[in-house]
Amino acid sequence: MTTRRTFLSGALASAAAASGASLKPLTLSRTPVVLSTWETGMRANDKAWEILSYGGKALDAVEEGVRVIEDELNCCVGLGAHPDREGRVTLDASIMDHRFNCGSVLFLERIKHPISVARRVMEKTPHVMLAGEGAQQFALDEGFPLESGELSPDAARGYQAWLKKTGYQPRARSSTALAPVSPQNHDTIGMIAIDESGNLSGSCTTSGLAYKMRGRIGDSPIIGAGLYVDNDIGAAVATGQGEDIVRVAGASSIVEAMRRGLSPEKACRSVVEKLARVRRDQLKDVQVCFLALNKQGEYGGFALRSGFSFAVRTAKLKTLTASRFLW
Ligand code: ASP
Description:
By secondary structure, the chain is of the alpha+beta class. The chain has helices at residues 10-19, 40-52, 58-71, 114-124, 132-141, 153-166, 242-247, 250-259, 264-278; strands at 33-37, 91-96, 102-108, 129-131, 188-194, 200-206, 227-230, 234-240, 288-294, 299-303, 309-313, 318-322, 324-325. The chain has a domain at 28-223 and 313-325. The chain is built from 9 helices and 13 strands. The protein has an 8-stranded mixed beta sheet. A 5-stranded mixed beta sheet has the order 7-8-9-10-13. Bound molecules: aspartic acid. Aspartic acid (ASP) binds next to strand 8.
């Protein structure tokens, strides 16, 4: 865990105390911090850091950062990601700022940057969530181009292999198992950041679980599950099996645990432990992973199982960290 440095000179403080002078509030110099999920977070953090290190806002950093990954058409997020079991990519995203403003899109098709559409929902509508056709129409009205909807070459190959392996017939309802979330098979980037002014924001963007049922929505666009920010306390973001993250209201539960005084890592751990307690027999092949950042710039992550990593960027650090885990 790393601590944000706030500079209050010890010498200055003790001199003031010795002289009996009352200490005036100082303007605290803050060092921004950004963290994001998985190895892809390294590239997203680079972009976010360009903004944060020049005094930019956390909200801009978390939007621009994850857009980099949405742009990578052979990656795990955005239109290049794994499709649903009917072979179509449907995207979910959410964004939240330091004033409880939030926006999200669900089941969005053929739009390259769902995170930016989510931000427009937040800034230009009285709503928090837009889904499906309505979300797509809103994106078009806002000037986002309609993309082709074709699978990327990697996604198309993976989908054909999955169809062969499972024998799944598109349009037939089936209980075919979902592909479990692993370092090679995850479709989300979540990012949380604090800026020089001490304001927190977060973003989360995903194509959801690979080969999900058509219409399925996970945790990522649900404020309080996949993402939550309370600027007095901290921010949290999730990746992994969305159904289990929703069940425990993952991100907001972590923020509440930090409010009770737990460190970011312990707060993440407390929610993973709760899930393990309440769903113990139903977590075979399930991965759930959380990241948290508090108002002091301390951060941490925790996962149900091994394999989760997260990227951290501060003025002194640029690193990919293997998360601690329960099992
Ligand atoms: N959390 C995402 C979902 O359930 C999946 C992921 O993190 O890869 O939609």
